[in-house]
Design goal:
With 532 residues, this protein is of the alpha+beta class. It folds into 4 domains: 146 residues, Immunoglobulin-like (Sandwich), CATH 2.60.40; 108 residues, no CATH class; 74 residues; 162 residues, Glutaredoxin (3-Layer(aba) Sandwich). The protein has 21 helices and 16 strands. Strands 2, 3, 5, 6 and 7 form a 5-stranded antiparallel β-sheet that branches. It has a 5-stranded mixed β-sheet with strand order 14-13-12-15-16. β8 and β9 form a beta hairpin. α10 packs across α12. The longest helix is centred in the middle third of the chain and has 27 residues.
Length: 532
């Protein structure tokens, strides 16, 4: 322990011994993570993600730093931006991505919009970060006031009994009452959070205050918008009365911005307010979409052109990037058709770079070469002429098991079609564990080809090419070996949402899987590519 502490102290000394100019172009983070957490995750590495956006489909740059045996760590993050948002993650031995967060250990790949929990840092910060065994944070050092403020803001959440009451109202067809309850609670939470923010106001610059002010509205109201989106995209034939109430709620609350007069530069710099703007636009066009399904018609075009026409500058650039992150999984072809236009109008360099990177990954699929349980090598070229569906999973991943449950029904549906092949890729570190997990069909289905990353997990070039850090994830590759999408609609999305809300882990039956909107959207992509 003395040795590890000495090495940590030495690394910290070296960081601080740099000249003043280099220090002003970086953020220094050091501190200690309770060893019980590192034991739980089975890892000695802390991952720090730089976030330009916060929706579940964003892909930020990852910085890694080793965690010593006593839990200490130290890292310097170089940046030319005056402010950046960072999130803290740990990856366990089976590559299951989970963050250390002040409240819940939420999964990055959870759906129905759980926005990433990010922290705003200022260039030049030198912060001591303490992460306790319950996942809570404490910050000390230069610039720590704003971080402790954010920790306290994240700690203010909707009580579980209120969530349960809202669900009961929905289940008893009292939709209006449920939506109004959620809205009132959200406004109360916003008032409470603003009171907390104001208690730190004397220690915050105007730039910091305004970003956190907007984050409060964006983060709190996005939760309602995400739930609203789920109900909007349910089939009309099943929930026509619910749609009527949603329409009324939308007319009342969605046609006005929460913030009336704020510099657009601040709006663009907020981590969460642009996500809220996009969610409102998404819900507007989802609700009034004549195709009755948000994965059909000219939906992408309508949302894209609305953002392009109604916003400007850096805020517009960021909204267009979010549009691609959120909608390209369902609209890969439409998204590609507007890519040149988007790149021609986006001025903000970092957003253009991220969109250019998305474009580069939409062409030829990565030429994977992976072994099956018998050591036979399977290559991309072996499956030319077939539509390929690839699932990534690891042992112990409950979300992977849920996805597999939904996929079993889909694999069965296409079992007689010789033009489609279903492949699973396991990211376990140990081959024996993978082989053992194949025996129970918990993560794979009869009729799938099961392959392995040979212990490399998320460090395998195949996963790194698509920045696939967690699981479950899916890819669809067309018959010519071109990528269709690296983020297709999750067939289990709606099923998992209902199970979580009801506090249940019941396995959905095949009929409910095939009628699930997300599963239907997934199969629409398969059918369209099979017919080509």
């Amino acid at each position: 322990m003395k040795k590890s502490f000495f090495l940590w102290a030495l690394s910290l000394l070296l960081l601080f011994s740099k000249d003043v100019n280099s220090k002003s172009q970086s953020i220094v983070l050091y501190g200690r993570i309770d060893p019980s957490l590192t034991n739980t995750f089975g890892t000695k590495v802390l991952n720090i993600k730089i976030n330009e956006t916060t929706n579940p489909y964003n892909q930020g740059e990852i910085k890694k730093t080793p965690i010593n045996s006593d839990g200490t760590f130290c890292i310097k993050i170089n940046t030319i931006d005056p402010f950046i948002y960072l999130s803290f993650w740990m990856i366990n031995n089976d590559n299951g991505r989970r963050p250390t967060s002040p409240s819940n250990l939420q999964n990055l790949n959870s759906h129905y919009g759980t926005l990433e929990e990010v922290y705003l840092f200022k260039n030049g910060d030198s912060i001591n970060v303490s992460v306790y065994k319950d996942g809570s944070f404490n910050f000390t050092g230069n610039g720590s006031e704003k971080l402790n403020c954010q920790y306290n803001l994240y700690s203010i959440t909707i009580p579980e009994n209120i969530k349960a009451l809202s669900l009961q109202l929905i289940n008893s067809n009292n939709y209006k009452e449920s939506f109004e309850l959620k809205d009132k609670i959200a406004q109360l939470l916003i008032k409470l959070k603003l009171s907390v923010l104001d208690s730190y106001k004397n220690n915050l610059s105007k730039d910091l205050y305004m970003r956190l002010y907007l984050d409060i509205f964006g983060y709190t109201e996005s939760e309602i918008q995400e739930e609203l989106h789920y109900y909007i995209t349910e089939p009309d034939s099943l929930l026509s009365e619910r749609k009527k109430e949603i329409h009324n709620y939308f007319q009342k609350t969605n046609l006005q911005d929460s913030i009336s007069v704020v510099n657009s530069e601040y709006l663009a710099e907020s981590a969460y307010y642009p996500e809220l703007i996009f969610n409102k636009v998404l819900n507007k066009y989802s609700l009034y979409n004549s195709a009755n399904n948000h994965t059909q018609g000219d939906f992408f075009k309508k949302v894209y052109e609305h953002l392009k026409k109604n916003y400007s500058g850096k805020l517009r650039d960021k909204l267009l990037l979010i549009c691609y992150q959120r909608l390209s999984p369902n609209y890969s072809e439409d998204a590609k058709s507007f890519l040149d236009d988007a790149l021609s109008i986006i001025i903000e360099g970092k957003y253009k770079v991220l969109l250019e990177e998305w474009g580069r990954r939409q062409n030829k699929a990565f030429p994977f070469e992976l072994e099956d349980v018998n050591g036979k090598l399977h290559k991309l070229d072996d499956y030319l002429g077939k539509l390929i569906v690839i699932d990534f999973w690891f042992t112990g991943c409950s979300w992977c098991a849920n996805l597999n449950t939904a996929m079993q029904t889909i694999v069965e549906k296409y079992k007689d079609n010789k033009e489609i092949v279903f492949i699973t890729v396991c990211t376990d570190q140990h081959k024996d564990k993978w082989i053992e997990s194949l025996k129970n069909n918990k993560y794979t289905s009869a009729g799938t080809i099961n392959l392995y990353t040979n212990g490399l997990g998320t460090e395998h070039p195949f996963l790194k090419f698509y920045n696939l850090i967690g699981a479950p994830r899916q890819l669809i590759i067309d018959k010519k070996g071109n990528l269709v999408t690296s983020s297709p609609p999750r067939p289990d999305d709606g099923l998992i949402f209902l199970q979580y809300s009801q506090g249940s882990l019941l396995i959905p039956n095949p009929q409910s899987t095939l009628s699930n909107p997300s599963a239907k959207a997934f199969m629409e992509i398969l059918n369209s590519k099979l017919s080509n």
